[in-house]
Amino acid sequence: MLKEAVYHRPKNNYAYAYDTKTLHLRLRCKKNDLSKVNLIYGDPYRWAENHMVSDTIPMRKLTTDELYDYWFIAISPENNRFVYMFELHDGEEVVIYGEKGFTPSLDDNRFFRFPYLNAIDVFDAPAWVKNTIWYQIFPERFENGNPARKTNVNGEWGDVPKPDSFFGGDLEGIIQHLDYLTELGITGIYLNPIFESPTNHKYDTTDYLRIDPQFGDVKTFKALVKECHARGIRVMLDAVFNHCGYGFAPFQDVLKNGAKSRYADWFHITSFGEEGEHPSYETFAFVPEMPKLNTSNSEVKKYLLKVAKYWIEECDIDGWRLDVANEVDHKFWRQFRNAVREIKDVYIVAEIWNDAMPWLQGDQFDAVMNYPFTEAVIDFVAKRKIGAEKFANEIINHLQLYPDNVSEVLFNLLGSHDTARILTECQEDKDKLKLAFLLLMTYPGSPSIYYGDEIGLTGDGDDFAYYRKCMEWDPKKQDQNLLTFMKRLIQIRKTYSALTDNARFGLIEADTDSGLLVFTRGEGQQRIVVALNNGEASVNVILPSDLAEHRVVDVWNDRELGEGEPAFKLEPKQFAIYSVEV
């Protein structure tokens, strides 16, 4: 038994409250090392004959990645109190694993503790998020709905964008195309910043309480939210609280008055210099136009929390996406969550590109933008840098980073305003693109489509501008086949609860040589089986016997399989989706 590979820690992603009655426990060990794991558990206050009364129950090996097996159990403590150890078997040795490490007997060890399952501590993302299909809109490039208002347009709609291009997209343009989004199956829109700013991207805010005049005004935005809600579409705004724009009034006051400014501590000023000199200050990255806000300052906190609450109370928005969230202090985000959740059950999504567990423990964010998933899909499908086995290992490992109730609401995406277009990553191969979208719509979490990806927009280059083309509204210039495919795929996700109700992802087969990937979603009475061929030759697929013996429906072609049909052939870049009623 390789004891060095065994790992568990309470009150984290290895032991957490899934809901108000259920604990999830995980144990990691070396791949193929343990033959059996039992959970020894009890109530710390239930004793008899000078010993705590304990019970034993087997755990199950849930999943496996490149290096490790993960054992799992869901259990409901009778009195919300819970202590436990693990009994590990490898066929030759039996050891007890507890807080003191490895011991030959229970009496020599110390129980891990989950002291009390407090309902208020349970991770509580909005329930509706699991069933939401997001659509990200870069407002300046979606549609010019009111040309008469514009004073800054410097290019024709559809021109190749430059960093300083303005094409006139606005809020009214979004309203005019809500029927399109409804027909696509969208139930949530995420808008890049819409507050006053001199740039087209608006990540350098000058007034957080004012809609940029080129986009409209608060009345227009209220109308947008109302129209969205009437169609069952939620609305999420982008908040830039790590930094502001150069023209932000408090920062301009600091530039004018230096250390004497009442706002001097609103920013991270490293040197005010001599009188008349320009101060030195911290920024986002190395961008002088984006001075970093000091969120530990009480006045800054008060102002930003006022902003966060204002747009919920005034316009009834449903979520906040938080830019550069990992560079802002944890204390501020805890106060932020408390402030907005007192008003409404909003969805809080952070821009964090890697392991975000410190922010996802129920006291700060509901989700992060799931770029590790993005990168894995691009490497596997678009670029074929990794094979099916490596892809499966990466996503299984990533799913173990978080509790299941976190994975169920992660903001999954194939691209955004910060990345190359997914079709461009696929070398404009639309069969590859369809496989990428298949993975997006069948993966645990809340999927997001970047505007125009569903009709085949492309974009790459050395500048973000290339990722932000104008939306194409001429049906003759849209890929209607791709659009029809997306509508069908979204409808399937919305129809089958196995794709949304839980985070359970089960690997059936991942063959690097052939490119075949087969996996299941869901548990209980209904499961979804997804098979895709990312290789260069046809492959034969055989469903496992425990699934094939049940009623199996070919979801994509809407037909029930007969006896003997669970064996089928997939051509290169083709896929199959099956519903199995267990």
TrEMBL record:
Name under which the protein is recorded: Glycoside hydrolase family 13 protein
Record-linked SUPFAM superfamilies: (Trans)glycosidases, E set domains, Glycosyl hydrolase domain
The organism of origin for this protein: Paenibacillus puldeungensis
GO molecular function, one term: hydrolase activity, acting on glycosyl bonds
This protein's record includes keyword Hydrolase: yes
Highest taxon, organism lineage: Bacteria
Keyword Hydrolase: yes
SMART domains: Aamy
Matches recorded under PANTHER family: ALPHA-AMYLASE FAMILY MEMBER, MALTODEXTRIN GLUCOSIDASE
UniProt entry keywords in alphabetical sequence: Glycosidase, Hydrolase
Domain Glycosyl hydrolase family 13 catalytic: 136-493
Enzyme Commission number(s) from the entry: 3.2.1.-
